[in-house]
Amino acid sequence: MMDDTNNIGHNRDSFLQDEDFISWRLFQTKESEEYWAKFRKENPHLEESLQEAIGIFDTVKINYYNLPSREKENMYKIILHNIRNYKKRRLITRFVTVAAVSLIAILSTFFVLQMKNATHQNSLIEHDMFVGQTLPEEEIYLITGNKKTKLLQNSHIGLTEDGKATISDSSNTKKELLLARTELNRLVVPYGKRTYITLADGSEVWLNSGTQLDFPSEFNGKTREIHVDGEIYIDVVPNEKMPFIVHAQEMHIRVMGTSFNLSAYRDDVKKTIVLVEGKVTVEHGERKLAELFPNEKIDVSENTVSKELVNTSEYISWKKGVLEFNETPMSEILKKVGRYYNVQFEGATAGKLNDQTLSGKLFLSNNLDSVMTSVSILSSTIYRRENNKIIFGEKKQEPME
User: Fold this and answer.
1) What's the predicted TM-score (pTM) here?
2) Residue 401 maps to a domain
3) CA 156, CA 174: separation in Å to the nearest integer?
4) Dihedral, CA atoms, 359, 271, 279, 275, nearest 10 degrees?
5) What are the pLDDT digits (tens) for 349-379?
6) Which residues of the chain, if any, have pLDDT below 50?
7) Tens digits of residue pLDDT in 293-345
8) How many CA atoms lie within 13 A of 359 on its CB side?
9) Three-state DSSP class for 284?
10) Is residue 159 within 8 Å of 199, Cβ to Cβ?
11) From the CB of residue 325, how many other CB atoms can be counted at a distance below 10 Å?
12) For helices 19-27 and 47-58, what crossing angle results, to 10°?
């Protein structure tokens, strides 16, 4: 137990990273209760921050479960291990620490929140809400000629110089396909799935959820060209004699040897290109829109074009299973989460919930409820899941007693 109260910082996030605080909220022993009662008495100026930290931790409702002491001890060790790792890496966000979000994700991975009193929970949700519906599972397909091959999640497709595709997956299973020579092949990745491909020239393409890629089995002629509907991250092999062109929703991105992220979903009004390395020229029809240099982003909508300097990690982290946000509207966050997990969110198009912006990192685990809990905590909203429905609502202010 701590002897010097000065070791504790003066904000909520410091409490959420403090080992004694975590132990207190997880185990709530008589000794810890007495210690923190004394701490509060001696440090009234920290009461507001302490209450905020308690609120975030207790959102998971971990203490309402009758857990064996051994399981709590194991969870406590895991939490501390993750927090220490994040401290070393200095991955502290502006809105709430990554350690805090990780802590919540760890706990909620062990326990899917159960809303025991649905009537009470419903009373806490305003009319402004997002309602999500999980969609039927679909498969990744590689279509070549009149042949359609089903692929597993995160499979890798490697093209060879002789017009073949070698497909490998997480089970170390490999198979070989002969691709069509005279027409484009199509790789279809539905919502909830991701994969990547190495093209015939060695260029690598990561496909995010809800993406379609049309590509040739080999590159002949004066240019290398592919067509995209959705989101990709691409690392293009340099070849001065054969420029690389990505076609996406009437945009044409010309590159020599470059890494960049392209988000050009058909149903998105705004299309975005973020350059990581190299240089690209962006055209729309016959009109040149802009040249991009590293760390620059261009947004293209029907009537406007805007360019700015950005932190590229915010736009490419999805391929590593992380979503980064910087004052991002709630609607955009749920759209990205929905695509990643095959959930369709609707509602709150003009409400307070849609006006809310968030900053932070969201770790995309295999547990959808863990991610939804983290979003709920980051946005100070109420979240519940009813079978295949996911409901986010604005939390009403409880009357002060």
Assistant:
1) 0.67
2) no
3) 10
4) 20
5) 556 677 778 777 787 777 777 778 777 777 7
6) 1-8, 60-67, 89-101, 106-126, 399-401
7) 999 999 998 778 999 999 998 899 898 888 888 888 888 888 888 888 888 88
8) 9
9) strand
10) yes
11) 21
12) 50
Whether residue 237 lies inside any domain: the answer is yes
Six token digits for residue 240 = 């001065």
The first and second tokens of residue 253, run together, are: 């991105």
Task: Quote the domain boundaries for residue 255.
Answer: 140-315
Specify whether the CB–CB gap between 226 and 215 falls below 8 A: yes
Closest CA to 217 of 145, 148, 156: 145
Q: Which two tokens stand for residue 130?
A: 């997002």
pLDDT, residue 138, reads 85
The H or E element that residue 391 is part of is strand 389-395
Largest interatomic CA distance in the chain? 79
**How many domains in the chain?**
3
**Both structure tokens of 15:** 């409490």
Angle at 235 between CA 324 and CA 286, to 5 degrees: 95
- Neighbour tally for 234: CB within 10 Å: 25
Q: Quick check: is 400 in a domain?
A: no
